[in-house]
Design a protein that fits this description.
heterodimer, A: alpha+beta, outer membrane lipoprotein receptor (LolB), chain A, 15-stranded mixed sheet, two-stranded antiparallel sheet, globular, B: 18-stranded antiparallel barrel, DUF1329 domain-containing protein (chain A)
């Protein structure tokens, strides 16, 4: 062995020894060794912090505004950046632990049913064979395409029901609230249930969820409501919807375009609920990638909102008047999905930022959603106000959502009380209930 | 304008409004006992400007009730007003809605309203009429706490809800609405209407004029799975144990008066608008009304099957005795009559279907069949001019028969994104009609046809061909409603066109700048030349009621 070969051999040994020292510590994140978001999503690595990602330039507690947004721009969505340019300020918050914020039954169902999901040509998900409803849990913990990611949102929700009672706040570009509309919603999943009755609620076979939403004030529209049924395969059977108009005391059948219409005239459409609540039959999905992003932290340092959305904790700061709540943001791995409507639609497309397992929300809500107009311009920006961890449900639940029209700079905030898994009888979501909630 | 009005007698109302102005800062309801007892409501003032003509049923002493010249003019029921009024309605409302919910399964609700009608105070050209009259003197249990001709305080609705899971009960003074059609009441047949103040022209259509009645309503939700394929199945029924209230028509002098019919009032001969004296009113108070429907949803089909056992909301008169004449120049017969509210059975159905993309339209069909609808007989008269054929006396007067009647409508509704970036426009198109197979044997009113429709024999006692009284009519309805700027502005337009040659155009605009204030402007125009404005089933019958309404509302 000549001298040159000895040197090469020495380099190789040094490299090998170094690798032998490093490999046992593969799950820890140090310095420049940032695992990919996919590695974190697939539990092969731990979640880095913003401090890790920025090599210490940004730490927990730091504030990001338009003067220093470049520090974290790489981990922000286009909508978040535009909102920051319009005055939104982020506070760097705390990362979550895996499955921190979903019920343990959800995790168990995911493990139990792992690898048994099958998808038909309509993108409906079944258990082992087509026709057997998915019993619950995440159908595709490591999804390979947009359809499998969106199957998590539809068939892998970690709750069986929720009730929101809150207020839609209309905020103008100056940051002043000029209108309030009360709204109460009950939604019950009758399929994919992780709490008894498990799987499919008897008598409701073929349905996915039932939902009743009612406006509670002002008096002019008090009692106005909608009742909708989503079917298990919405390509085979499209949604059914009814509306009750107290001003006329009539219950009316409503057309399918209602998902695109605004809720009480706000920035939110009915289909924007949870970021994406429209029938899948009208959309095609494409997985853009799995990335680290700054999104609202899943555990808030204190309860931001209370009293059905009417009271905000004085410790919660607001920016641009009350346009943007200054909440904590943390790094999470997210799936970036492009959703393009296949029917005539007010949106040209939606970009959905969905928490990956094991860092997803039990409600199945998108962390961030950005919608584009039909000309391809960024239009609206949807973000959850996450943060209330409820021990008895072992779930993180949101305080509300903020929907900002980035073009007009008008904002709607839906602030609410949110209860889950109360084993609500699906019959509570019916025409009778719509009538009973009316006046 | 009678300016003294503002300083006389109504000061308590201003105190009332002032008191509540101090507590209306709440965003939502005013919580009196936590969330258990809450109150919400609104204060509203509305003025309707008369853009039409003098109401012929109040204001033309030159003609008698058949359209014949009467000489000399007399201040009769159709001649109480000499000049055109500028104001059709001037009303202030204070409406409160009280909710008491001591438990999740039980709720008490009451709508209490104070109304102040100052129409005749602000427009001296109007005859002083009772703006807050009840249907008839027989009906007293209206929940009125007190009233005169201009002011009333009343419990408009009051009921309790009991929610026992699949069974839901509502007991109390309430409205029950089964129909879905716009500007037409096909299945909306349970409650009568109060047409006495703004006829049926309110922007909320029937909501504020449907007279609540004391009833029991029950809905039983049948669990899915009980019957295959059905997503929804329920049975609903109502029972009115005796609070039968008829239609409330406008009094003589009311700008919305729409016919000459009025019974003889011996206490005020000036209000003499008819020729008969009502000796008896066969009111139905104490009788029972009931009905039920079966509702279902099967795939994208949904619908109901209905039955209702009711009494006619509108009085129908029957001559009991003809006993004399009025000498020339009126030359009419006098008689006694009784008012009746015959029993009717209504069989109905509704069905709707939601068309998927790209049609995105809901089609709704409603129809009713009434086997025993009361219509005046073709050969009845009530005061034919001149001397009626002797052969008709004394047996013929006013009379009615049971006939078959069909009412139907088909409605197409779609939310359409017409203006990018704005809310969806609600577009509704409807076709509706009435079909009475024996139409040639019956008529709307007991009056004889006007001269232009006399038959060749000059025989007013018959109306073969039923020309002016054409009953089988139809109409096309287009309703557009568009919100702008987060529902701060709203534009709407309702157009009804009848192929017989009549139309109604009803544009509206609303401005709601925030939580509390709302400003509305609406207009109503009637036109067409069908049957020389004489056919009650044609919209040009209301040619004199062109109007513009302005409304200010403060809600809390």
């Amino acid at each position: 062995m000549n001298r040159q070969s000895e040197i090469k051999c020495s380099y190789f040994l040094v490299l090998l020894i170094s690798l032998l020292f490093l490999l046992p510590c593969a799950n820890s994140v140090t310095g420049a060794e940032i695992p990919t978001a996919w590695d974190v999503a697939s539990r092969k690595a731990e979640l880095p912090t913003i401090e890790d990602l920025t090599a210490g330039k940004v730490k927990k507690g730091d504030v990001i505004d338009k003067s220093n947004v470049d520090l974290v721009k790489q981990w922000l969505t286009p909508g978040t950046i535009e909102a920051i340019m319009q005055g939104m300020i982020l506070t760097m918050g705390t990362n979550s632990n895996p499955y921190d914020g979903v019920p343990k039954e959800y995790v168990e169902a995911t493990e139990k049913n792992k690898g048994k999901a099958v998808m038909d040509e309509n993108r409906a998900v079944y258990y082992e064979k087509i026709g057997t409803p998915w019993p619950g849990g995440i159908p595709y913990p490591e999804p390979k395409n947009g359809d499998e990611v969106m199957a998590i949102l539809k068939y892998g929700v970690g709750i069986i029901d929720y009730v929101t009672d809150g207020v839609l706040r209309f905020v103008n570009r100056d940051g002043k609230v000029y209108k309030n509309v009360g709204m109460s919603t009950t939604q019950v999943w009758v399929s994919n249930r992780i709490f008894p009755p498990l799987g499919t609620y008897p008598g409701y076979e073929g349905q996915m969820f039932r939902r009743v939403s009612t406006l509670t004030f002002p008096v002019e529209i008090k009692g106005q409501g909608q009742f909708a049924i989503r079917y298990y395969d919405d390509s085979k059977q499209y949604d059914s919807g009814f509306a009750y108009f107290p001003a006329y005391k009539r219950t009316l059948r409503i057309s399918t375009t209602t998902w695109q219409d605004n809720i009480a005239g706000s920035d939110l459409t009915n289909g924007d609920s949870e970021g994406f609540r429209e029938p899948y039959a009208d959309w095609k999905f494409k997985l853009i990638g799995t990335e680290y992003l700054l999104i609202p932290e899943h555990r808030a340092p204190f309860p931001y909102i209370s009293n059905k959305g009417m009271d905000c904790d004085p410790r919660l700061k607001w920016d641009v008047g009350v346009r943007f709540p200054r909440i904590g943001w943390a790094v999470f791995p997210v799936f970036v999905v492009e959703a393009v409507p296949t029917v005539k639609h007010i949106y040209g497309k939606k970009i959905l930022y969905l928490g990956t397992p094991p860092y997803l929300l039990s409600s199945g809500a998108a962390e961030i959603m950005e919608s584009y107009d039909r000309q391809g311009n960024l239009w609206k920006y949807y973000v959850n106000i996450n943060g209330l961890f409820v021990e008895k449900w072992h779930s993180s639940i949101p305080f509300g959502v903020v929907m900002t029209d980035l073009q007009s700079q008008h904002t709607t905030q839906f602030l609410f009380n949110y209860t889950i898994n109360q084993n609500v009888d699906p019959a509570r979501c019916s025409l009778k209930e719509l009538l009973a909630r009316g006046r | 304008m009678n300016t003294n009005y503002f300083f006389k007698g109504k000061t308590w109302l201003f105190f009332f409004l002032f008191f509540f102005s101090g507590v209306t800062v709440s965003l939502a309801e005013i919580e009196l006992i936590g969330e258990t007892l809450t109150v919400t409501g609104f204060i509203r003032h509305q003025t309707v400007f008369n853009m039409g003509e003098k109401n012929p049923y109040n204001s033309n002493p030159q003609y008698d009730t058949n359209g014949y010249l009467a000489s000399p003019p007399k201040k009769t029921g159709y001649g109480v007003q000499q000049d055109k009024n500028w104001c059709n309605l001037n009303r202030t409302w204070f409406v409160t809605e009280w909710n008491y919910r001591p438990a999740d399964i039980f709720k008490l609700y009451s709508k209490i309203r104070v109304i102040e009608d100052s129409t005749t105070n602000v427009d001296g050209d109007l005859y002083e009429y009772n703006a807050l009259a009840l249907s008839t003197d027989h009906y007293g249990s209206t929940g009125r706490l007190g009233h005169d001709n201009h002011v009333t305080a009343e419990i408009w609705e009051m009921y309790g809800d009991l929610d026992l899971g699949n069974l839901w009960l509502r007991l109390g003074k309430q409205q029950i609405v089964w129909g879905e059609m716009i500007s037409a009441r096909i299945l909306d047949v349970v409650n009568p209407l109060d047409k006495s103040w703004h006829f049926t022209w309110e922007p909320e259509e029937f909501e504020n004029i449907r007279i609540p009645q004391w009833m029991l309503r029950a809905v039983y939700n049948i669990e899915p799975g009980s019957l295959p394929l059905l997503d929804e199945l329920y049975v609903e029924g109502f029972l009115n144990p005796g609070d039968i209230v008829p239609t409330n028509d406008p009094q003589i002098g009311n700008p919305y008066r729409h016919n000459y019919q009025y019974e003889y009032n011996p206490n005020n001969p000036d209000e003499w608008g008819g020729i008969w004296r009502t000796t008896e009113e066969n009111d139905r108070r104490g009788d029972r009304e009931f009905g039920f429907r079966l509702g279902y949803k099967l795939g994208q089909f949904a619908g109901t099957l209905n039955y209702a056992h009711l009494f006619s909301d509108d009085a129908i008169s029957k001559t009991t005795r003809l006993y004399g004449t009025i000498p020339a120049p009126w030359a009419r017969y006098l008689g006694d009559a009784e008012k009746d509210y015959p029993r009717i059975d209504i069989y109905g159905m509704s069905m709707n279907y939601a068309f998927d993309q790209p049609v995105n339209t809901v089609m709704t069909i409603e129809a009713t069949y009434i086997p025993n609808a009361p219509w005046y007989t073709i050969d009845c008269f009530y005061f034919p001019a001149g001397v009626p054929p002797v052969s008709l006396l004394p047996v013929v007067g006013m009379d009615y028969i049971d006939t078959r009647e069909f009412n139907y409508a088909i409605n197409l509704q779609r939310f359409s994104n017409i203006i990018p970036g704005q809310q969806f426009m609600n577009v509704t198109f409807q076709y509706q009609g009435k079909y009475v197979p024996e139409a040639d044997d019956v008529k709307w009113t007991p009056g004889a046809p006007p001269p232009s429709y006399q038959n060749p024999r000059g025989d007013y006692g018959t109306n073969t061909g039923n020309i002016v009284e054409k009953i089988n009519t139809d109409a096309f309805v287009l309703s557009l409603s568009q919100d702008f700027a987060y529902k701060t502005y709203k534009a709407s337009c309702l157009i009804i066109w009848q192929p017989d040659g009549a139309y109604r155009i009803n544009p509206g605009f609303a401005y709601t700048p925030g939580d509390h204030w709302r400003f509305d402007v609406f207009a109503n125009w009637w036109g067409g030349n069908a049957y020389d404005n004489n056919n009650k089933s044609c919209l040009n019958y209301f040619y004199y009621q062109d109007e513009v309404m302005a409304r200010i509302t403060y809600q809390f």
